[in-house]
TrEMBL record:
Belongs to the nitroreductase family. It comes from the Bacteria. Residues 16-65, 69-156 form the Nitroreductase domain. GO terms for molecular function: oxidoreductase activity. InterPro entries: Nitroreductase, Nitroreductase-like. The keyword Oxidoreductase applies. Its cofactor is FMN. Keywords: Flavoprotein, FMN, Oxidoreductase. This is Nitroreductase. It holds the Pfam family Nitroreductase.
């Protein structure tokens, strides 16, 4: 992934180039870039269009330090911003047939939209799922009912950052044509 993206990529190119970034420069991301990333999340689809999400963008040094406590990796602590997507089960769609609640799906879709938008902007991201939920909720002052399944740091990759080559099963292993 280039550090400053100027030319629009095809979607497949974007999907191929998006990768987990685990080496961030500390310089801030311009507001207009952040704005476009958030806009991609706003436009995401959700069950019954309920949009049961809230975006928290952490950028102040004091809040960054608090949030760092939920995931103690040095590379995570250099990113200038952290984007957290949260929501409540009571605000998401429930499938009548079996009471499946779409909150986790809806939150994953909007975060993925923003992660892909960030990749198009040359901004590095990394899905983080292995965090301490309670520490994060306490840091953000969120109540028990607010759910967080994943978040991402946002930042430009360092010059020496090299993506791990894509390692995926073949299409034939994951697809059935019938
Ligand atoms: C739901 C989810 C949770 C993840 N949690 C973490 C995590 O806690 N820490 C981490 O370094 N990477 C995490 N990842 C990143 C994956 O390891 C990564 O996406 C995968 O190895 C494929 O690599 P790529 O993103 O570079 O294509 C997570 C990814 C997903 C989708």
């Amino acid at each position: 992934m280039k550090s400053k993206q100027t030319k629009a990529m095809s979607f497949l190119q974007l999907a191929a180039e998006r990768c987990s970034t685990r080496s961030f420069r500390t310089d801030p991301i311009p507001d207009e870039v952040i704005g476009r990333i958030l806009e991609a999340g706003r436009l995401a689809p959700s069950a019954k269009n309920l949009q049961p999400w809230h975006f928290t963008l952490v950028q102040t040094p004091a809040m960054l330090e608090k949030v760092h406590a939920c995931y103690s990796r040095n590379w995570f602590h250099t990113a200038p911003a952290i984007l957290i997507v949260s929501g409540r089960y009571e605000n998401a769609w429930v499938r009548p047939a079996d009471s499946y609640n779409s909150l986790e799906t809806d939150l994953a879709i909007t975060l993925d939209h923003m992660i892909l938008a960030a990749a198009e902007e040359g901004v590095g991201t990394c899905w983080i799922g292995a965090f301490d939920l309670q520490v994060l909720k306490n840091a953000l002052g969120m109540d028990e009912k607010e759910e967080i399944f994943a978040f991402t740091p946002l930042g430009y990759p360092t010059k020496d950052f090299t993506p791990v080559p894509k390692n995926r099963k073949s299409l034939s292993e994951m697809t059935t044509y019938r």
